[in-house]
Amino acid sequence: MGQRQDIGTLLVIQACAIGLPVLLATLLGLREGAQRLVPFGFQRVGDQAVVGIDLHIPSACQIAVVARLLDLLAAQPLAFLGAILQFLLDRQRDLQCQRRNRFDQQLANGQSGVRGQDGYTLDILVRPRRAAPRRGTVRRAEGNAMGRRHGGWPTRVPRPRAAKLSKEELQRLQARAQKLVDESIILRELMDEVQLARGRLYLWRDRAGDDLMARVTPLGPRSMLLETPHGNSWTEHKGGQLATVLKYAEGDTRGTFHGLGSLIAEKGGAKPSAQRVLHLDLGIPIPVLAEPRYWYSMHRKPWIDEVSDAKDQALVRFVACGISGSFQGTCLYALRDGEWGCYAIKPSASETIATAEAWLEKRDWEDWG
């Protein structure tokens, strides 16, 4: 009797230990579609005492699929895609952190190398900002046929240096320049002084008023360079011998130096220019003719609109025509108290000499602008 009780206890314990895992595997197999080919029946023997239960052992020649918890056909692809998505998001976050906080930037030859901690490198093309010209630089573009380098920026040529001439050579050069200026019809009337300073010749309109027309840089004993001031730099215009560069400055008709070059550039049989008529027929001095310097620098050409019967007044318009239209200004050359003067006239009062004179009298002969 005591032996049966022990055998019953063993049967209950071993049956629970075996049945519960099998039941759990069966329920999970129903949810995931696992194959249920393992037999779950037990052999009962009449009234014989059950001492043990042998598990089912499949034969070697039979092929079967054993149910297991990890055999989830639908869950595995989803888990794989989730891992890929997590990997991409993690790399994007890492790249953003490197771009913002953890990178070494190097600038060389217009390129910037951004290097992160993981060894990834991004090459960024950087176009250098064009620096403003320093004082003493020369505005000149040379190089290939297009006047540009491979990078797209104009080639910057260093400013020509003045030749190292002796003191006696520089003094002879200054004396020669002063002689050529005195022989010029226009320059002798417009220039106040030829100054020798720092190995160069400076052509002053009014030195006391800091009004500089141009400078001449000696590149050698017989080679000169004519330049004009442009802000903090210099613009080159003509090279050659001293007489050549001064002749170029005298014949200027575009307003770079004075704009009165037509006084000496008349051809035989051609109609005289307005400047020549005003200077030779009316007797207006060259310095007074050159007073509308701003209009000459804007390449405006003068033409005479009206002349008084006494030839003591002339209404002259300065006109420039282009694609955007025409631009003009009007001035009245008038002889008052034995001296000629140039007076800019307001456009609304510039119809005739009479309207211009009446407008100036109201302003006590103070011109416009």
Task: Report what the structure shows.
By secondary structure, the protein is α+β, with helices and mostly antiparallel strands. It has three domains: about 1-70, no CATH class; about 135-140 and about 155-250, no CATH class; about 265-369, no CATH class. The protein contains nine helices and 15 strands. The strands form four sheets. The chain has a six-stranded mixed beta sheet with strand order 4-11-10-9-8-7. Strands 12-13-14-15 form a four-stranded antiparallel beta sheet, with helices on both faces. Strands 1-2-3 form a three-stranded antiparallel beta sheet, with no helix packed on it. A hairpin with a 2-residue loop joins β7 and β8. The longest helix is centred in the N-terminal third of the chain and has 31 residues, at about 1-30.
Provide a concise account of the structure shown:
The protein is an alpha+beta fold and 369 residues long. The chain has helices at 2-32, 75-100, 167-183, 187-190, 242-250, 274-281, 286-289, 293-297, 353-362; strands at residues 104-108, 111-115, 121-125, 138-139, 141-142, 155-156, 193-197, 200-206, 211-218, 224-230, 233-240, 301-307, 313-322, 325-336, 339-345.
**Which segments are poorly predicted (pLDDT under 50) over 5 or more consecutive residues?**
1-5, 34-38, 40-45, 68-72, 97-128, 135-148
Distance between the termini: 137 Å
The amount of beta strand, in percent, is 15-25%
Average pLDDT taken over every residue: 75
Helix content: 25-40%
Task: Give a quick set of tags describing it.
four-stranded antiparallel β-sheet; 9 helices; 3 domains; alpha+beta; 369 residues; elongated; single chain; six-stranded mixed β-sheet; disordered N terminus
